[in-house]
Structure formats: structure tokens, C-alpha cells
Amino acid sequence: MSQTIKRKGKTARKAAAAQGNRAKVRSAKATGGSALDMAMGWLPFTEAQLQRLFVLAILAAVAALAWLIASAAGVPGMAEARFAQISKQAGFEVKHIELRGVKNINELKIYERALAQKYRAMPLVDLEQLRRELLELPWVEDARVSRQLPTTLVIDIVERSPRAVLRKADTYALIDETGHELEVIDRSAAKGKLIVSGEGAGQEIIQLSHLLEAAPALKPRVREAQWVGNRRWNLVFETGQVLALPEGVKESAGALVTFARLDGTNRLIGGRAIAIDMRAPDRVYLRVPEGEVQEIPTTGGAVALASGGNGQ
Predict the structure, then answer these.
(1) In this structure, CATH architecture of domain 164-297
(2) Does domain 92-159 have CATH number 3.30.70.20?
């Protein structure tokens, strides 16, 4: 015989406590929802847009992970090699090399670097690496390498311009305006070119050019420019006579203009003076073979040497 046991109902105290707990839960949810809604309200996106952005972020992460796995397995490299093979079979390979802008450079030095790319599939040619190798050549100031499909590699060269010959002991080298050495030459090849000498002379080519432009009539008669003490110039004329100029850009240019004027009235170049010193601001000192020295003012007219010469 079964017996039904009846449980006692909740007391008033327990019912009140349960109702209080439910109220707290509802209040917490309302507070949390309000804070989240407030935060969402500050964002410049709708809820639908945020959902789409979240999906896109997940897809991007999956794609990046897939790429990393494929890279680790060598898939991109195999695909690139296969693509290059197909391109080569289709006739896209380096068979011809075209040089442009080459005047002074030994072309063989360029071909030595470029021929390493011959018969290579066009997609595999590293244009930037070849350009870096060409820029290592002394004559090359800039270079551009491009593909001319289907079979030609085009190399455009910008050469440096030789501005003078740098003499160091018994060696001669062509240099550009920055002092960059282009090529070693023999003494006979230096004939007729402006020679510079002295420590640091190569870096003063631009200054020397401006100095000689102050007296253009004298420029073709200067055979060598000697940079003395890293501060001033001596000019050696075609006659072997030496002109000592003062320090300073303006001072040396002014002295050279004064010398050109005195040479016009006294024919100093080719005359008896073997050295002309213009380092003093208001005097010119002339030295003749006998060792005598004559002092003349820079504002003077005709010059008569102390040895009794006729000014020539």
C-alpha cells in the first residue's frame, strides 16, 4: 500500500528571499545591458556592420594561417617555379641584352653581370639585384634595368662625367666633380686635361671650377691645380709658372681676377717670373730665375722686374 508524502510549502521568508534574488538578477542584467548599449552607441558602426567586420576579421585570420602553412610546405615557391617554367616554354626568356647610354664604360664589365641572366625565364630575373651590381661599377652614376618582352633585357646607364685628373705620386686617375675615381689612366692620357693634386683635392673640384670661371680667359692656360694645406690653391700654368692664391673663396677669386688684369698689361704668363705670389691682399711678389723678388702693388700698371727685364 503506497503512501503519499506531502512536502511542506515554502515559508513566507523563503518566498521573499527568492523573489529578492530574482530582482537582483534582473537589475544586474539591466545594468550590464545598459552599459553595453551605451558603449555600442559611442561606436561609429551599426550592429550589423560590426557583425560583418567581425566575420571579415575571422576570414582574414584564417587566410593568413593558410598562407603560413602553405609557405612552410613550399607551395608558393613551387608555384613560382612552375610559372617560370611555363613562361620559358612560351618563349619568355632572356635571349638578348640591349645597352643604352654607354660611352666611356668598358661594355664587357656590364655584360659580365648581365649575361648571368641570359636564358633565364623572364619572371625569374631579379631586376633590382642586377641594378645594384651595375651601380658598383666606378663609371655608373645610375642604372635602370627593364624587361622588353618577350626576350630582351634593356639596361639604361647614366655615366659619371670626368671633370679632372687626380695625380697621386706617379699615378693618374680620372675623377668626377665629387672626387669619385672613375678610371686609372697613364700620363700620356692625362695630357690636355686639368690635373689636380694635394690631399683632399678631389673633393674641391666644384670649388675649383667656380674659381676658374672668375677668369675664363686663364682657364685653358691652367695645367695643374695644387690644393695646399687643405686650405688654398696654387695654379700651375702651361708655361710651368706657379701662381699662389690666398685662402678663402672670395679672396682667391678676387686675386685671380687681379692677376688676369695684370697679365693683360704686363704679359706675366710666359714672362721671366717663375712664381707669382698673390697671398698678400695689396701686393704681388714676383720671383725670377736669379732668385730676385720684386714687390708690386696690385693697383699698379706696367711691371718692370728687378733684374731689369722688360716685363715679359
Answers:
(1) 3-Layer(aba) Sandwich (3.40)
(2) no
Extract the C-alpha cell encoding 46.
551599426
* Rounded (10°) CA dihedral 212, 217, 218, 223: 90
Q: Which three cell numbers stand for residue 78?
A: 613551387
Task: Give me the pLDDT at residue 296, please.
Answer: 65
**Domain chopping of the chain, boundaries:** 46-90, 92-159, 164-297
User: Are the CB atoms for 156 and 101 separated by under 8 Å?
Assistant: yes
Vertex 230 angle, CA 228 and 231, to 5° = 80
Phi-psi region of 248 (alpha: psi -120 to 50; beta: other; left: phi over 0): left
Per residue in 239-294, pLDDT (tens digit) is 999 999 999 999 999 999 999 999 998 889 999 899 999 999 888 999 988 766 66
Look-up: residue for cell 645594384? Answer: 132
* E strand residue ranges, 25-159: 96-100, 140-148, 152-159
Q: pTM here?
A: 0.65
pLDDT confidence bin for 302, thresholds 50/70/90: very low
Residue 117: phi and psi, rounded to 5, are: -95, -5
